[in-house]
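Shift notes (night). Ran DUF2188 domain-containing protein while the centrifuge was going.
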Amino acid sequence: MAKLTYKIVEHDGGWAYKVGATFSETFPTHQDALRAAEIASAEQQVAGATDGIQYEDADGKWHEELADGRDRPQTEVSD
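Came back to this:
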């Protein structure tokens, strides 16, 4: 199972959380970014509905799959 880490970092003149190479919006304070990361981390773990998805791969081929709404990653916040 995947594990996502929400890391609090200085960014663009303020603070943000970063997951992999992706930054959140910029927050004015470290505490604001930490709180936003805690909320996003908790929401990421909430199960959704199982549903069909379609996507195009890098070669332009379309795929259809059933996405299990219970398959949620583990998350943590690193300050």
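Helices lie at 30-44. The mean pLDDT is 90.
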